[in-house]
Specification:
The strands form 3 sheets. This protein has a 5-stranded antiparallel beta sheet with strand order 1-9-6-11-4, with no helix packed on it. The protein has a 5-stranded antiparallel beta sheet with strand order 8-7-10-5-12, with no helix packed on it. A two-stranded antiparallel sheet has the order 2-3. It is globular and about 50 Å long. The chain is mostly beta strands. It is built from no helices and 12 strands.
Length: 140
């Protein structure tokens, strides 16, 4: 897991929100980029990808993003990391393959999340787990 600070360039006619550049991330492999929208107080958890690395950025609204590591070979096994992503805390969260993640929209308005993945999406390579059956009991 890596968290990167991003830049917002404000202008009287509108803003430019920087997301991802090969200049800053020369090893990034592009597969697909999309936006998803989550309604206030909705929790989307838990999911992990076996082959896809993700790069999440929130351009509108706010989410509480939680990443959980259950990989046997990892130094952070059974640990989690939580971060608020929003326009006020404008960062890119790079989630490597194999980590569980989930999030809750904590803003009063819908959250818009940009996800740039390194391989075109393939639903057969991901897995999900219901919140009640997940090994981490997280207080959303």
């Amino acid at each position: 897991l890596k968290i990167y600070d991003l830049s917002i360039y404000n202008h009287e006619r509108g803003s430019l929100l920087h997301i991802l550049s090969l200049k800053d991330h020369p090893d990034f492999k592009f597969g697909e980029c999309y936006a998803s929208e989550t309604k206030p107080q909705v929790i989307k958890a838990w999911k992990r990808h076996k082959k896809i690395a993700q790069n999440l950025v929130v351009v509108s609204g706010e989410i509480n993003l939680v990443i959980y590591d259950d990989r046997n070979h990892s130094s952070s096994i059974n640990k989690y990391y939580a971060i608020t992503l929003s326009r006020d805390n404008y960062k890119l969260a790079h989630i490597p393959k194999g980590l569980w993640y989930g999030f809750k929209c904590t803003s009063k308005a819908n959250a818009i999340i940009i996800n740039c993945i390194d391989t075109p999406y393939d639903p057969s390579e991901s897995e999900g787990c219901q919140i009640e059956k997940f090994p981490l009991s997280y207080e959303w």
